[in-house]
Design brief:
The protein has 19 helices and 18 strands. α6 links the parallel β5 and β6. α14 crosses α15. The structure holds acetyl coenzyme *A, 3-methyl-2-oxobutanoic acid and magnesium ion. Acetyl coenzyme *A binds next to β6 and α7.
């Protein structure tokens, strides 16, 4: 790309994306067109200037707050792009994407997706393969009539395209579908690799060239001035033959030459060389396009290699759905260009008309409608793309989000909330993250209390595969062992060290409990009971030896849904001892009860924790009572002695 082109791209005024987003957040979609489609609180997609990251300004991978303005989308002319840095985005979710096994979409779902694709700002929507069925034709026609006629305030309206084999009836069907759009495009294709020509088409190369030329001419003869031609399996075709057929179709009136790596076999360098060779060897005015399948997981890399070598249209699908291993994913290609197009890389200066804030809503819609789930670690739109579970990463994120995020999630329309840094609490989390999460939940812990909570949290997190939920953290912090559990003198408390139960249909339920006393000594005891919890409680009573204790109440609940949920138990105990009596308002005396809760992934352990906590509270109360009584007796004794002395004097 030339330096002057880049300068042109950078001419537009600088604007802070975050500020624009905030200002625009309360506006409706803002274009001439009224929109009914759910979209995030985000700017109008039809901004005259598209903003993108300036990685060069703030170092490689600078996130959204380093945004600079981009040049506007150039006026649409089928065979050329007046800004040499502009890359058209051709979305084929509704055609190649729908070819994914099991991903059939209804006409109304296709229309909804097409509407969101227009908000996203794709240049071309391939709405279907009209000859495939009357439904497909109807869906394409519907999209052409509606989305293809909704012009936005900056003049943008997506091109609506239909795919056709290189024959009249397919092309007629495509034209019948797309002709209602302001900007209709016919896409026709025929295979050019040796294996496809010989085995599938059973045609000679000369025949294939003739069929292609006839098809393009026929499409143009219908009045369509926007015709895309694809040499199917170009990635495995002889480049010389490709140059020959492409030159012939450009002469016949093709305006876009789409180069498919149909079986996803090319390596980026090879694909880039293929594109560069076409640019060099095929004369005429046309736009080169990439269409990369993902069989080797190289579709994004190959598409970018295409752009680096002169392609100015990229064919992609939302979430990368498509035939077999899918197509180049729109969000990956578009965001790579958005983030790195300003860097002095091979794609220096490249930009698209995509408004990234609609990426996430589009991804979600396509996922929901197609039933094709998005893998959690999928780039840009996966559930984990902006989540951080490792302690070191969480610490970095809490200090500066740019340490581990190259794109702010809001940029793609994924709003995590004001102060959220995507921290997911789990077994790899560290103290910084736990401390921050606890503060956020209203339980600020520091020093030893934080350390103690951290150890408990780690023990629980290790048992779970799905991370530890906020409610589970609250259960942990408000149950036994935390300062939020109540006023227990920890130095004088019993600590539960280990619990082991044997239960089931054979033999008596038996529990072995190990506890550490206030004197720092560990004791072990085994008991049988009516069930594992009863046996455990008997063993605890036996170790603590605080007299006879009655279990007044016992309940157990799952903190969150699912089999892995933390269990929270709540117990109320009553000592069978007169020291712990309290006066009711009636003046009657009643035995005082002590309540506590415990949480763990294991129900028996959670039950034991709650019981130990309640017992500690009871012992603490009785100790205080005894101390107060001793103090009172001491005072009485002193008073009596003083009185005696006074009498003696
Ligand atoms: C790489 C791609 O993604 S290409 C697009 C693939 N997508 C689809 O195929 C989905 C929609 N397809 C369909 O609904 C059907 O295949 C239809 C309606 C298009 C055609 O159905 P049918 O007429 O029953 O043909 P069928 O699919 O069995 O076979 C394809 C025929 O088209 C021929 N053909 C394949 N590609 C082309 C082409 N680009 N141009 C002309 N003819 C072609 C084949 O050689 C075969 O011809 P034959 O019947 O003379 O052997
Ligand atoms: C029809 C063409 C463009 C295609 O989908 C492919 O070759 O993968
Ligand atoms: Mg394809």
């Amino acid at each position: 790309m030339s330096a002057s082109c880049h300068a042109a791209a950078a001419r537009a005024p600088v604007a802070a994306f975050a500020g624009r987003r905030a200002a625009a957040a309360n506006r409706a979609s803002g274009g001439k067109v009224a929109r009914a489609i759910a979209a995030p609180a985000a700017p109008s997609p039809r901004r005259a200037v598209i903003v993108a990251a300036s990685a060069s300004a703030a170092g490689k991978g600078a996130p959204a707050d380093a945004d600079v303005a981009r040049a506007p989308r150039p006026e649409y002319v089928p065979s050329r792009i007046d800004d040499p840095n502009y890359v058209r985005v051709f979305d084929t979710t509704l055609r190649d994407g729908e070819q994914s096994p099991g991903a059939t979409l209804t006409s109304s779902e296709k229309l909804d997706i097409a509407r969101n694709l227009a908000k996203l700002g794709v240049d071309i929507i391939e709405a279907g393969f009209p000859i495939a069925s009357p439904d497909d034709l109807e869906a394409v026609r519907n999209i052409a009539k509606i989305v293809g006629n909704e012009r936005f305030e900056d003049g943008y309206v997506p091109v609506i395209c239909g795919l056709s084999r290189a024959n009249k009836k397919d092309i007629d069907a495509s034209w019948e579908g797309v002709r209602h759009a302001i900007r209709p495009r016919i896409h026709t294709f025929i295979a050019t690799s040796k294996i496809h020509m010989e085995s599938k088409l059973r045609k000679t190369p000369d025949e294939v060239v003739q069929i292609a030329v006839d098809a393009v001419k026929y499409a143009r003869s219908l009045g369509c001035d926007d015709v895309e031609f694809s040499p199917e399996d170009a990635g495995r075709s002889d480049p010389k033959f490709l140059h020959r057929i492409l030159t012939a179709v450009v002469d016949a009136g093709a305006t876009t030459l789409n180069i498919p790596d149909t079986v996803g076999v090319c390596l980026p360098e090879e694909f880039g060389t293929l594109i560069a060779g076409i640019k060099e060897n095929v004369p005429g005015e046309y736009v080169i396009s990439t269409h990369c399948q993902n069989d080797l997981g190289l579709s994004t890399a190959n598409s970018l290699a295409g752009v680096a070598n002169g392609a100015r249209q990229v064919e992609c699908t939302i979430n990368g759905i498509g035939e077999r291993a899918g197509n180049a994913s729109l969000e990956e290609v578009a965001m790579a260009i958005w983030l790195r197009g300003q860097d002095k890389t091979a794609i220096y200066g490249a930009f698209t008309g995509i408004n990234p804030v609609y990426i996430y809503p589009c991804s979600k819609m396509v996922k929901d409608f197609s039933g094709m789930s998005v893998q959690p670690h999928k780039a840009i739109v996966g559930a984990n793309a902006f989540a951080h579970e490792s302690g070191i990463h969480q610490d970095g994120m809490l200090k500066n989000k740019k340490t581990y995020e190259i794109i702010a999630p809001e940029t793609i329309g994924y709003f995590r909330g004001e102060d959220s840094v995507g921290v997911v609490m789990g077994k790899h989390s560290g103290r910084h993250a736990l401390s921050s999460k606890l503060k956020q939940l209203g339980y600020p812990l520091e020093g030893d209390a934080l350390d103690e909570m951290f150890n408990r949290f780690k023990l629980v997190a290790e048992q779970k595969t799905g991370g530890v939920d906020d409610d589970e953290i609250i259960a942990l912090v408000t149950c036994e062992g935390s300062q939020f559990a109540g006023d227990v003198d920890k130095s004088a408390s019993w600590k539960l060290e280990d619990v082991q139960v044997v239960c089931g249909t054979m033999g008596l339920p038996t529990a072995t409990v190990k506890m550490c006393g206030p004197d720092g000594m560990s004791r072990v005891r085994s008991e049988v009971g009516s069930g594992p919890v009863d046996a455990t409680y008997k063993a605890i009573d036996g170790i603590v030896a605080a007299g006879k204790v009655e279990l007044v109440e016992y309940s157990v609940n799952a903190v969150v849904e699912g089999i892995e949920s933390l269990a929270e138990t709540r117990v109320r105990v009553r000592p069978m001892d007169s020291v712990a009596m309290k006066a009711k308002s009636s003046g009657e005396m009643e035995a005082r009860t002590f309540t506590a809760s415990g949480a763990d992934t294991d129900i028996v352990v959670a039950s034991a924790r709650a019981y130990v906590a309640a017992t500690n509270r009871m012992i603490g109360f009785m100790r205080e009572k005894a101390a107060a009584a001793a103090k009172e007796a001491e005072a009485e004794k002193k008073e009596a002695e003083e009185a005696k002395e006074a009498v003696a004097k």
